[in-house]
């Protein structure tokens, strides 16, 4: 294992994977043995250590920059009712800091609450984080958003402020909501480049509108010059 990756910091990173139990489900390795290994005991073979590190996003002791990382955050407030400090875990992936942007529906307030009450809740909040090399899509549990205390000063908003740093995605953008974008798709959204919708995006939009394929084709033809 890379000497720069110490087990204490790696344990902190588990918060992005559902904790130690979530990491156990992801790797198929006993949670107790993973926990003991994080605490310095020799409970994992070299092969299983590699499996754990790969699941956390490291290959040969270095951050995997060949793929977009997928993180899930289930809590943003700790037992003391304070924002959970994520900076130690973030430093593993972004030693010199990084920039962050969010989906347009990742907001707190009465509007979101009313939608939830009416059964039309927006998708869980999504954030994109990158330093130009490592790329992460962070999904939060329903009804949660990041707070300043979560990221402190280690992450900077892409466009200078949270209000301005909005990703060019919609609530029907399945690649970001249900799946994981490729590096090219990530960069296109991050840089606000126009992208061609996938067939899944088209199908989802048609279903959400409650129209037939014939009606969708008719509307497209009507909008042609």
Verbal overview:
It is a single chain. The protein is α/β, with parallel strands linked by helices and 225 residues long. The chain folds into three domains: 1-64; 65-194, no CATH class; 195-225, no CATH class. It is built from eleven helices and seven strands. The protein has a five-stranded mixed β-sheet with strand order 3-6-5-4-7, with helices on one face. It has a two-stranded antiparallel sheet with strand order 1-2. The longest helix is centred in the last third of the chain and has 11 residues, at 199-209.
What's the quick description here?
This protein is an alpha/beta fold.
> Which structural class do the helices and strands define?
alpha/beta
Low-confidence stretches: none
Biggest sheet, spatial arrangement of strands: 3-6-5-4-7
Order of helices and strands: HHHHEEEHEHEEHEHHHH
Strand content: 5-15%
Helix content range of the residues, please? 25-40%
Largest sheet: 5 strands, mixed
> How far do the termini sit from each other?
60 Å
Count of spatially separate domains: 3
- Sum up the overall morphology in one term: globular
SSE inventory with pairings:
Blueprint: H1 7-13, H2 19-27, H3 31-38, H4 46-55, E1 58-59, E2 62-63, E3 69-73, H5 87-93, E4 98-102, H6 110-117, E5 126-130, E6 135-140, H7 148-151, E7 155-157, H8 174-177, H9 183-190, H10 199-209, H11 213-222
Parallel strand pairs: 3-6, 4-7
Antiparallel strand pairs: 1-2, 4-5, 5-6
Helix pairs in contact: 1-5
